[in-house]
Design brief:
single chain, alpha/beta
Length: 179
């Protein structure tokens, strides 16, 4: 499965993923967004074959690392935006499980995973370049821990699995290339 987002090409390994949707490009999301002003949604929703759910937002600042530093290291703007997209995506998935005309079963599977405490739900913030590239060596680990802690605090109502990843720091079966 190949998708383009934020000047990046994402290739999800079909041997590891049951299904992936480019959520903010989906018809169901469009209906919700047009109905309720300021609704946000993540870029990708995927279910891996081991039945865990991945909600992924992508931001590519390769061409403007200075802006990423300002937004990420000097304010919570990006972190708040990510948390809001996760929050708004959940009722969209629920509505799609009920009303979708073409992907109802996928969204039902997503809801089943969310309601099962034994299943994993990952909130993934894909940032290019990886934030550690922007931080001096002496502060790298501490700064990343602070960013991760802030995101986990914002999303603890849903999951403790919150990851900040990139092409260079990617634990998923996904190949990413700039386009």
């Amino acid at each position: 499965m190949i998708f383009e987002e934020s000047r990046l090409q994402f290739e999800f390994d079909e041997t590891a993923w049951k299904q992936v949707v480019h959520y903010d490009q989906e018809k169901d999301y469009g209906k919700l967004k047009n109905s309720i002003k300021n609704t946000k949604g993540v870029d990708f929703i995927g279910i891996q074959l081991d039945q865990h759910l991945v909600l992924m937002e992508v931001k590519n600042f390769r061409e403007d690392e200075k802006l990423l530093k300002e937004k990420l290291l000097q304010s919570d703007e990006l972190l708040n935006g990510f948390a809001q997209k996760i929050r708004d995506t959940l009722p969209g998935m629920l509505a799609s499980a009920r009303n979708s005309t073409h992907k109802r079963d996928f969204y039902k599977d997503c809801i089943t995973i969310i309601e099962n405490i034994e299943k994993r739900v990952d909130a993934v913030f894909w940032l290019e370049p990886h934030p550690e590239m922007l931080i001096s060596d002496s502060r790298k680990k501490a700064t990343l821990q602070v960013l991760s802690r802030k995101l986990k605090k914002k999303l603890k109502w849903l999951t403790g699995r919150v990851l900040i990843i990139s092409e260079t720091e990617n634990p998923y079966p996904i190949i990413v290339k700039p386009i």
